[in-house]
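hey so i finally got around to running both of the ones u sent me last week. sorry it took forever, my laptop kept dying halfway thru and i had to restart like 3 times lol. anyway pasting them below in the order u listed, first the sequence line then the structure token line for each. didnt double check formatting much so if smth looks off just lmk and ill redo it

first one:
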Amino acid sequence: MIHAKKETLSEIVVHERIPRTVFAILAGAALGVSGSLMQAITRNPIADPSILGVNTGASLFVVAGIAFFNIGTAGQYIGFALVGAAVTSVFVYGIGSMGGGATPIKLALAGAATSAALSSVVSAIILPRTEVMNAFRFWQVGSISGATWEGILTVLPYLVVGLIGGMLISPALDVLALGDDVATGLGVRTGIVRLIGAFAGVLLCGATTAIAGPIGFIGLMVPHAMRLICGPNLRLIIPMSAIGGAILLTISDVLGRVIGSPSELEAGIVTAFLGAPILITIAMKAKARAL
């Protein structure tokens, strides 16, 4: 009996606890770097996958895949989520850039409007379909509780490529922060740098969202915190955002389990509680500077 209990405890640790912690570290790092890249290439202090509607776009494509194409594997989720994240990113930036160019507030409003519209489409798809709702309901609030070794191994190559790509272009992003004209004069190909940065950001956000669901505000909070610590140097901010994001999501997951005991509060809900006041503060400062 004692041996059976020890074996059961060992299985729980190896197959549930450790994968959950490993995925929290990977997902947090990916979201932190994704947010820092989006803020750098758009020069928008409130750029974040959740605020710009990228998470919702990924969610819509995953739901459509479940409902109409019967997808069910981690690889299929990632494929649909990446397409949704990319399409939504282009759409939101295009809308936000109309009428005088993109500003932080315009991009945030475009993202919020797009997110609301896509959320309505998601609801229209899942409400008449019980089986789709069952597959989607826990995923949509942002959770790492269902992490498995299989899912981690599936998403790992995408995260590695995105993280390495983001760090490799960080010196060019530092130059880009001086302005397009200055960057071009110094030999930086601004269009290619933005394209690589956007690709890496969407790759990190889409792959993470495919497995964990739309976990918001990590990409907003962490880069700002790292900027206070490291200054404006993106060669430090991007890798430090990976570390900070990993720590924040892991702590949020632990807090969710403690606060929600004997059940648990999903990590995405905890990060939303933490991030909403920070978003309001940053938006108010951005508006004040624009006046």
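and the second one:
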Amino acid sequence: MRIDGRNLGANNVDRIASPPVVSRFAPSPNGPLHLGHAYSALSAWEIARRYVGRCLLRIEDIDVARSRSEHVAGIFDDLRWLGLTWDEPVLRQSEHFSVYQAAAERLRQMQLLYRCFATRAEITAGAMTDICDPEGAPIYSRQHSQMSGAEQAARMERGELFAWRLDMARACDIARAKRGGQALTFTELHDDGRHEIVMARPELWGDAVIVRKELPTSYHLSVVVDDARQGVTHVTRGRDLYAATDLQRLLQVLLDLPEPIYCHHRLIVNDDGRKLAKSEGSRALADLRLQGETSADVVQRLGFNLSV
């Protein structure tokens, strides 16, 4: 096992973080934590310690069908084993759907969301090019963006499910106006302490889903709302979520939410170069404990020193 240290590159834009710094570790309880999660948690706590701040724990369990209470308990056990602490109470997203619904309603009032009844098969078939969004999904061709109110009502009467999609072109126009014509950017904090101003390109996502068919929210909406209401100043997460920052910065501007600093850390990968993942059956931290590894072994292996 090794650490993937791909370099993103940076400009020499120096900024000093102003206290109070608040970071967060926000796992989803749909499986046990592995070394990749440990690295992410330690990175978040390290940022807070570096700037004499605090680190929050948030349980991102909007997907209630896949979330399990035993995995929530396992998250607490694993973090305590690593020697990490957090403030109580722990925010659980499944208990705050009304907050995300209110944010979505604000976007609807701005005429930025529209209903989309399309299935995955219809989206794939209707894709006009082979261009995909940053997650590899086909770009939605907007075939339902101009659906009449009568047809929408008929489909809802038949019980058809729908998602709420963001009108990306209109959203970008409004965001640009809110910023006085300035380009949309975000700030990336690198491991060596340098800050880079990065151009955000939310249009790469197309008309992204903001409220899912089966849920009253989405990852992107929930995370920006929670980061704002919890006062998170530094969003620490893996580089696999780097592209998500473009869309999330757009939502922050649209909803008049504060802009955090982003810290996208290196990924822990297998010997074949693939990142560790629950779906790949990566070894759980609990299994490492049973095999006799100590928390000090894991912390040292990942390159941290909690005693400093």
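quick thing i noticed on the 2nd:
The CA atoms of residues 23 and 64 lie 25 Å apart.
anyway thats it, ttyl
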